[in-house]
Amino acid sequence: MSSSKSGSSGTTGKPAAKAAASGAKAPAGTGGPAKTRGPAKTGGSARTGSPAKAGGPARARAKAPAKPESHLAMVRRARRINRELAEVYPYAHPELDFRNPFELLCATVLSAQTTDLRVNQTTPALFAAYPTPEDMAAAVPEEMEELIRPTGFFRAKTKSLLGLSAALRDEFGGEVPGRLDDLVKLPGVGRKTANVVLGNAFGVPGITVDTHFGRLVRRWKWTDEEDPVKVEAVVADIFPKSEWTMLSHRVIFHGRRVCHARKPACGACPIAPLCPSYGEGETDPEKARKLLKYEMGGQPGQRLSPPADYPGKPAPALGAG
Q: Which of 5, 38, 99, 141 is found 20 to 30 A from 54 (Cα to Cα)?
């Protein structure tokens, strides 16, 4: 079987399913399959096929090591990945259901150590019971715990929701502040949560470094940093501020649908030619296509109320499936 061609392709950026149908191209020098070469000529040099010197073996020449990627080349590759992902996921969006900044803030706090789907299935009852910060701050802890139990760690999350609601009531007039410095002072709110709220409820650019984002930027060799704050700083230097929020959505979408933690679907990946970690996962297009999730795999998404342009199916309500 002939190997995949190496190098970048001008056809990337199309949906993963289409990329898989034709076979994802392996990136040049990034771990993709090597070209099959014919045997060396008999009696000649293994490298050139020229006659060996009489009386001794042909000289073996060491292959020059691959040249390290320069910072400028990495930045150009990173920005191209972002452009390709923008074509693959033009509908990328926050995958938490919300109608206002308060609901997004609470939903993001609840999303720790669980899926956005489980949060979306849980918050309708929570917001029906406590629609405002004032209502939530006055909640009976045990009653709130029962409402958010499906999200896990419900006692700690209840404490955070009660604390942030009281802070919003007492310090911000019942309104969610639109500044990072104010948001991170709220109980249970860190930089990741603050950036989610700022970018999606206030239109303030922010980079959301969750587990998916961190995993992918390290696979793509944008950085080897593990600390989310350091990752955020590195990525912020690569992209203009205007791209930060949508970049976050695109990378997280790709991590959830294609570039999974345990077994990435390399053979169905539309940006395979740009990935230095190609081959860590399944490279066979047919097998890789079976690993795709959510709308990429023809399955429901995580939102019960997705945006109008979302091409997949809405998620089922809690207990509906």
A: 38
